[in-house]
Design goal:
This protein has 334 residues and is α/β, with parallel strands linked by helices. It has 13 helices and twelve strands.
């Protein structure tokens, strides 16, 4: 069949086959009623001349940008970079396959100006929030705008589309393992108390202690430990009480802890044991490797991308999605 020398348009195909441009458009986009034979002829012609749809024209017709906004927190530069990098990779790979692109939004706390500008200027069809806070301003704004969005994390708000690993169960299981190894006197090191994920991790820890008959009085919780300076000031006081284990609420905090322990000549696990409620490659490759709770972030994020694009396209998608976790028992625990 004859091929066209230059970029082919719907008008070219319509003229060649003696049909209307709207007929060609309906056949290519599988929209509307059209005879099977006519559809076959149009599709064959489009394929033979390497017709490539104009994405801008397609967007105008469908009233979409084919862009997904992904919001990451500004304080990711404190050590969470591997997590958010894997999130972006997972989301991007999944939505690219569905002809969507990713627009990155970096946001500081509840300063939602970048997100507001993106949505108000109609540059995205939907949004993924990679961190959920108490009284989250982004959630309030996106609800008001009526734009499809999904959150990483667990909320009691039944209106939200959510995806999360079972933080409570995972941390419960990890804590029970720690207790089974004889640890009843520990220090818990947390980051920002306003991040909901930290609340769920703490609940899993406390539930495990209570169910095992361990007094929470002997398991103090220290917040703000995602700041290296604060952690450096606090750890000497913590170590004076001779805890059996340092429980880090996430990998970024754990990296800071490992650095401090090494600088102060503590041997792991001989002098102090360490566990983390989140894993990354640094903890796996540490000497010794750190016992951690592991979630496949790329897979988790990829699923989020599929759910949001489905929501944008009017498909039925689950309100809540839970992904699995795995306990990585390593040499930082004896």
């Amino acid at each position: 069949m004859e091929r066209f020398a230059s970029a082919v348009t719907i008008a070219d195909i319509a003229e060649k086959l003696g049909v209307s441009k709207s007929t060609v458009s309906r056949a290519i986009n599988c929209k509307g009623r059209i005879g099977a034979e006519t559809r076959r002829r149009i599709i064959e012609m489009a394929e033979s001349c390497n017709y490539i749809p104009n994405p801008m024209a397609k967007g105008l017709v469908l009233r979409r940008t084919f862009n997904i906004g992904v919001v990451i927190p500004r304080d990711a530069d404190k050590g969470d970079i591997p997590f958010f990098q894997n999130c972006l990779v997972g989301i991007s790979e999944s939505v690219y396959k569905l002809d969507y692109d990713v627009v990155l939004v970096v946001q500081a706390g509840n300063d939602i100006i970048p997100l507001r500008r993106l949505v108000k200027n109609r540059k995205v069809d939907g949004v993924i929030l990679t961190r959920l806070e108490e009284n989250d301003e982004s959630v309030k704004f996106l609800k008001k705008e009526g734009i499809p969005f999904l959150v990483f994390g667990t909320s009691n708000d039944e209106e939200l589309y959510q995806i999360d690993s079972d933080q409570v169960s995972g941390c419960f299981e990890m804590t029970r393992f720690m207790i089974s190894k004889g640890c009843s006197r520990v220090a818990v090191l947390g980051g920002n108390i306003n991040y909901r994920v930290n609340g769920f991790r703490l609940k899993g820890f406390e539930d495990a202690c209570i169910s095992s008959g361990i007094s929470l009085d002997g398991c103090p919780v220290y917040w703000g430990m995602d700041d290296q300076r604060i952690l450096d000031e606090t750890l000497p006081k913590i170590m004076k009480d001779n805890p059996q284990c340092l429980v880090c609420m996430d990998d970024a905090i754990c990296v800071y802890v490992l650095k401090w322990l090494k600088q102060n000549e503590y041997e792991i696990p001989a002098d102090i044991q360490v566990i983390s409620f989140y894993d990354n490659q640094v903890l796996e490759n540490n000497t010794p490797p750190v016992t951690s709770l592991s979630v496949n972030v790329s897979s988790f994020a990829g699923e989020a991308g599929k759910i949001l694009t489905g929501l944008i396209e009017g498909k039925e998608v689950p309100k809540k999605t839970s992904v699995g976790y795995e306990l990585k028992i390593r040499e930082s625990f004896r």
